[in-house]
């Protein structure tokens, strides 16, 4: 509802109301049959936002491209559960740090379809239980020391923290 940056309403929630109080449409909605692959729909939207990003601010310019690249990685059968976590993190970065509404909502189609149609994502994952062996936060310790920064924003925060 409301275009690529709107709300994804799965068939299980068809009792919801198209209204400002529930699901605002802004006059635009798309209907996909159950035969459609919602992962591919979201991947298409991810590329749309990466293309539409004007590049003014880094979170959106880089974040939308990372999102589209990650969806391509999953489509190629090279993704993992870790990539799913990273996309959730990207959504938070885009939402909190982008300059305008395009960046704020760019990850919505991915994150919402991930929640509503988990099977569409999980069947593409190489391994559901993959954990990266490389500790990026620890690897950045020298950089933090050189720059004299050790605040929360200078750390990579894990999803479990
Ligand atoms: S959030 Fe808006 S201003 Fe920033 S790069 Fe994206 S489209 Fe441009």
Element layout with pairings:
Elements lengths: L37 H15 L5 H18 L3 E2 H17 L3 H5 L2 H9 L1 H5 L2 E3 L8 H4 L1 H7 L14
Parallel strand pairs: 1-2
Helix pairs in contact: 1-2, 1-5, 2-3, 3-5
Description of the structure:
The chain is mostly helical and 161 residues long. It has a domain at 34-131: Up-down Bundle (de novo design (two linked rop proteins)). Helix content is 50%, strand content 3%. The chain has a two-stranded parallel sheet. α1 (38-52) packs antiparallel against α5. The longest helix is centred in the middle third of the chain and has 18 residues, at 58-75. The protein is globular and about 55 Å long. Iron/sulfur cluster is lined by residues 53-57, 60-61, 98-100, 102-103.
Task: Indicate the percent of residues in helices.
Answer: 40-55%
Q: How many helix segments? A: 8
Sheet with the most strands: spatial strand order:
1-2
User: How many strands?
Assistant: 2
Mean pLDDT: 89
CATH class of the domain at 34-131: Mainly Alpha
User: Regions with pLDDT < 50 over 5+ consecutive residues?
Assistant: none
